[in-house]
Prior knowledge:
This protein has helices spanning 14-26, 39-48, 53-64, 66-72, 76-89, 97-106, 139-146, 168-171, 175-181, 235-256, 271-276, 293-309; strands at residues 3-7, 33-37, 119-125, 130-134, 156-157, 163-166, 187-191, 265-267, 312-313, 319-320. It is α/β, with parallel strands linked by helices.
Amino acid sequence: xxxVFVLGGGGAIGAFQAGSLLALAExxxxxxxxxxxxxxALNAAFLAADPxxxxxxxxxxxxxxxxxxxxxxxxxLSRAKGVPSVLRHGDALLDxxxxxxxxxxxxDAHDVAEFAVPLRITTTCLDCAESVHHDRGPLTxxxxxTCALPGLLSPVRLPDGHDHVDGGVLCGxxxxxxxxxxxxxxxxxxxxxxxxxxxxxxxxxxxxxGSLAACGLxxxxxxxxxxxEERPRARLLDVVLRSFTVARSVANRAAVREALxxxxxxxxxxxxxxxxxxxxxxxxxxxxxxxxxxxLVAAGHxxxxxxxxxxAVRSDGHPENSAAI
Length: 325
């Protein structure tokens, strides 16, 4: 029996996901295949080269490094410098070259098919209006595409001749693609990195209205989760990004709803669950808030560790021993 990991996108919340991946690795739960989108695709590609504890620890350190933050969360000065580029080229505010350089520096493979652990990366094809799950092709270009948040980074022309952008536009948590890889006895572990998780089962996730459960974690009385409201810094840009986040959540929730009923699927605690159970003292202000990265890594690690000790709670309300993975 094997495990397929699904790593959803979520910007800075990828740090929480990295902490959870470290806890899984320390418990000996390693992926036989990985499916990732956006920030989750970065984590998946990093881990696919070597799903060891040492590699997972290096991934957690990557999310906390100032050098990573400077690329993944550009400053206001960087935004200002990007305005002339928008006026000239009209397709993006930020230069993709720093992200490209970082990917080339941290990743060892050139093609998605080269990894020790099979990997699929989800992008959105602008021309076809469809999600594409890449199991081969130029790694850096495909990762740039899945991270190309419309308006911030330019679309990427891939070898199929089409322009591709952030996979989260249509399929931010590619559970269905993972089920296509999984055998009848396999387990699909879902690590959703959304501030408003799209994989929360009604009554079983802290993000569900009125829920008294948090993916099997004990909930602190009176600690009711509400997704944080981002405070605009650059009014026009932030309004666009916040609107995109809302629209994306609706599309993704519809995309994963049916897949979550598959008995092979197990959802690890979200950021919402960690907060509701007291494992995270302060929520990040939004998916572009990298100031909390060390706290997010620690909370992700603690939440996954507690979940592995079980019993977890399935979407139908029955206990399930997640430690038996």
